[in-house]
Structures are given as C-alpha cells and as structure tokens.
Write a structure and sequence with these properties.
8-stranded antiparallel barrel, single chain, mainly beta
C-alpha cells in the first residue's frame, strides 16, 4: 500500500508555523523534501517507498499560529519503491488507481502544541476518499540563510494510517496464513521549507 505521502508532508509544514512567526508564507522545496512510507510484506519484511512529486504552501497567521493553513499536493503516480513492477501495481486500480485519482491532497484543519513538538490535524484526500490524519511533528529547525540568500528551515513528522480507510484494500491470502500486504502504513516526512517573504527580524 502506499502512504500518502501527501498527508505526511503537510503536517510537517504546520509544525513550523508556531516556531516561525517572522515569515508569513512558506513553500515546500521539493528538491530537498522526502515523503516516505513503509508497510509490512508477508509479515516478514518491510517495503519502503517515496513520492517524488510534492508541492505545497503554508499561510501563517502571525497573531495566532494555530490558525495557520497548510495546503499540500502529491502526485501518486510518482511513487517509487525501487521495483518497477511493484510501482506499476501500486499505480493500478488495485491501489492508487492514478488514472482516476491523479492527485492526493492534505489540508490542515488544526495545529496544536504537543510537548516539545506539535500535532497537526488535517484532511487527507487519497483514492477519492477524504479522511482526517494526525501528524506528529517532533523536529522543527531554526530558520537559516541558504547559499542563495533564501530563508529556509527543516522539519520532521510521522504518522500511521490504515490504507483500507482510503479504499486501498487489495490483498492476497498466503498459503501458510496471513496476507501479502500489511494494512498499517507508517509515514515519515523530512521537509525543507523556503520563506516566500523575507523575515521581519
């Protein structure tokens, strides 16, 4: 199954909001962002993959960061697990059905402080189904200047979803018992954000 990368990514973004009241708007640097997932195969090993095409933006409410908005889009056809045949299967009607559902999105609905990090709740739309997802953001780096004079920062977020909740229910029963693909999918996001407006100070 394939995780939504989508979800993952947005959540991470939200986390950066409370820590960065200086900039009103951020965008995802896709070249330095990884949205990955992992799922059990035959209950024996773990298969990992990523989504290559990710885009998104964050509109920050400087007076009340928890009201900030995150909007992320992921191309499910850009899934990559390192095996062409498996990637083609994941793109098929058995899983993402990219011909009918070419876009995954995540739109935040709530950002809340949680210990040293944040919980970002949002609506993840995948495979034509929209359901809530909660991202745990445990790392948000301080803003720095990159070699090109841009203000950037990084964040790390995780989540766990059940792929069947989004209608990704394909499976195969094994002769010895059990199934070929696990239902629980772990998501991990390492995102780099670029300030679209210069920090005030």
């Amino acid at each position: 199954m394939t995780p939504n990368a989508s979800f993952l990514l947005s959540g991470a973004l939200a986390a950066s909001l409370p820590a960065a009241a200086a900039a009103a708007d951020w965008e995802i640097d896709a070249a330095h962002t990884t949205v990955s997932f992992s799922v059990k195969h035959m209950m024996v090993t773990t298969v990992r993959g990523t989504f290559a095409n990710v885009a998104g933006s964050v509109s920050e409410d400087e007076r009340s960061p928890t009201k900030s908005k995150i909007d992320v889009t992921i191309d499910p056809a850009s899934i990559h697990t390192g095996v062409v045949k498996r990637d083609d299967h994941l793109r098929s009607a058995d899983f993402f059905d990219v011909a009918k559902h070419p876009v995954m999105t995540f739109r935040s609905t709530r950002v809340a402080k949680a210990g040293a990090g944040y919980k970002v709740t949002g609506d993840l739309t995948m495979h034509g189904v929209t359901r809530p997802v909660v991202l745990t953001v445990d790392v948000v780096t301080a803003p720095i200047k990159n070699p090109y004079g841009q203000t950037v920062r990084g964040l790390h977020a995780t989540a766990k979803i059940n792929r069947k909740d989004w209608g990704l229910g394909w499976n195969a029963v094994l002769e010895a018992g059990g199934v070929a693909v696990g239902e629980s999918v772990k998501l991990e996001i390492d995102a780099e954000l670029v300030a679209k407006t210069a920090p005030k100070s």
